Amino acid sequence: MKKQLSAKNLSLGYDNVSIINDLHVTIPSGKITVLVGSNGCGKSTLLRGLARLIKPRTGKVYLDSKSLNKLSAQEVAKELGILTQGPVAPEGLTVKDLVAFGRYPYQSWLQQWSKEDEQIVEEALEITGMINLADRVLDTLSGGQRQRAWVAMALAQDTEILLLDEPTTFLDLAHQVELLDLLYELNCTKGRTIVMVLHDLNQACRYADYLLMVREGRIFAQGEPAEVMTEEMVREVFNLECRIVRDPLVGTPMCVPSCHKSKLHLSKSSL
């Protein structure tokens, strides 16, 4: 049976600033859940709280019936694969060295580096398209290549649950689609539970089984994309007028922002 991540009465913040307030959420197991919302609404903070990167002010995060705070760091690392925004690696580290860090939760005095560890690292490099760059130093790569290396490290943890904060950052459109297709395939073929923050609403609708729409530190709406991504919801959460149409390729909701042609024309005329 797949493990389930949830939170009850969760409040999170930084210093004297409260971000998430008394939040309850259950992440669907074996599904792709995407957090969406305007800048500063708390979606990344919520993801970090679910990953135990931020200590709750109140409430708890649970893996099944166990509080994450009662698990050791090594136990958490075996259960949750995490990719944060703007991760930093030691200088001079190669791609393969970075990806190998994903296997460290499985190492001990009794269990050293094994053929299985090597195989999982190779697979992570292969499926992220980084196998030919394995010996390159991270600092010599483009932003998009570095991002794929970090994703490979998270995959090498071989966890049932993946938490990814804006994983498409620094990637061009082709590599964004490639990465999201990869995560979709991992979910379909291996049943991975994937939770990620995305800014692109249309990508969120296309790849998500479940959307969490966050507004001012609370979950404003949740459910399947067709239920959540409505013109009224976009207006309320993003202060944006739009039309919701069907994606012509996959049939999911697609957000088309409204614009005033007269204003656009004036703007272009002034150039």
From TrEMBL:
The GO terms describing molecular function are: ATP binding; ATP hydrolysis activity
- Keyword terms: ATP-binding, Cell membrane, Ion transport, Iron, Iron transport, Membrane, Nucleotide-binding, Transport
UniProt entry tagged with the keyword Ion transport: yes
Q: Where in the cell is it found?
A: Cell membrane
Q: Does the keyword Transcription apply?
A: no
* Full protein name: ABC transporter ATP-binding protein
Q: Main site of residence?
A: membrane
Membrane protein topology class: Peripheral membrane protein
Signal sequence bounds: none
The source's domain of life comes to Bacteria
Q: Which residues form the ABC transporter domain?
A: 5-241
Q: Which GO annotations describe the biological process of this protein?
A: iron ion transport
One cellular-component annotation, GO: plasma membrane
